[in-house]
Write a structure and sequence with these properties.
By secondary structure, this protein is α+β, with helices and mostly antiparallel strands. It contains 8 helices and 12 strands.
């Protein structure tokens, strides 16, 4: 097959890391990088075979959703009530079509349902029971909620709720804070891709914040906040504390700086993550690729699980700065 564009590639993330390298078990680091390597290579294979950026993005995210090390799909964290509620979105940069789902509990791969919403639904965002009924009507088999249980995530919830009970006994402030359990939150996954046809796509999938109130929706499902793609500019997927990315409309903000100010993607991404997000009080990072194959992966935390593979031979997997 003759390639229509010499520049194509994919960038993925597996969430930010709030702790320094010394506090993360070596075994866990290796497991995360192994899963990311598979996701990166499979997504790139789609592109290298002439497939679409949308399919490559979905392929990579699905693999990460199946890896229990990440806070998406199988490894999703628990809400305060001990439930798993998952969010995901995917966007086509060629058409600006979008599919998103929020608060789903019985979909093994939320990115698959988000893609189905994009393909056949007149809507952009479906949530909770309605999203799952839509899935059933269109051939997606629901799984039992127990599928998402992992000992690690359950233990996280127990540790946090024990801290809450201890504070309550001491009659200290028991107000729930977004940043309350920052060391327990990492692992949202995402991918952005540019294919040989010059089309961009972005996708994000998340299990949300551990111990959050039931019904809280993350930026992963909010187009323009956690996910955005436009062939005129770039594709973006964010990770971190979603409330801040929603308030800053961060993914679209990056795209807008390319469109209206003609900023290089690296400069624009740094402005979003290292200045604007910090001023809001948020932590996190993003991955982005523009319509010429330039990339950016800034983060303001000690680490961000990330990988890149481009047609020019550039390939890398990393966690730390």
């Amino acid at each position: 097959m003759k390639l229509q564009s010499e520049s194509y590639g994919i960038v993925i993330h597996g969430g930010t890391e709030e702790l320094s390298k010394a506090f993360i078990p070596q075994k866990l680091q290796i497991e995360c990088l192994d899963a990311m390597s598979q996701a990166l290579n499979e997504g790139y294979r789609v592109l290298n075979n002439g497939g679409t950026s949308l399919d490559a993005t979905k392929k990579s995210i699905r693999i990460l959703e199946d890896a229990p090390q990440f806070n998406a799909g199988k490894g999703a964290v628990f809400t305060h009530d001990g439930k798993n509620e998952l969010d995901a979105a995917i966007m086509n940069g060629l058409t600006l079509e979008v599919g998103a789902v929020a608060g789903i509990k019985r979909i093994k791969n939320p990115i698959e349902l988000a893609h189905l919403v994009l393909e056949i639904s007149p809507y952009v965002l479906l949530s909770s029971d309605g999203a799952e009924k839509f899935a059933e009507r269109n051939g997606i088999v629901l799984v039992d909620e127990s599928y998402f249980y992992t000992d690690n995530r359950w233990s996280q919830l127990q540790r946090i709720q024990k801290r809450e009970r201890d504070r309550a006994r001491r009659k200290t402030d028991n107000k729930i804070s977004v940043n309350e359990n920052e060391n327990e939150n990492h692992g949202t996954v995402g991918a952005v891709a540019l294919d040989i046809h010059g089309n961009l796509a972005a996708g994000t999938s998340s299990g949300g914040i551990v111990n959050r109130l039931c019904g809280r929706i993350s930026d992963a499902a909010i187009i323009g906040a956690g996910t955005y793609a436009n062939n005129n500019t770039c594709a973006v997927s964010t990770t971190g504390y979603g409330e801040y990315f929603i308030r800053g409309v961060s993914a679209y903000d990056l795209s807008a700086m390319l469109e209206y100010r003609s900023m290089p993607i690296g400069d624009a991404a740094n402005l979003v993550v290292l200045e604007k997000l910090v001023k809001l009080g948020g932590s996190g990072g993003l991955i982005a690729i523009d319509n010429r194959g330039n990339t950016a992966m800034p983060f303001n935390t000690p680490g961000m699980y990330r990988g890149i593979k481009l047609s020019n031979g550039k390939a890398n997997l990393d966690i730390w700065k």
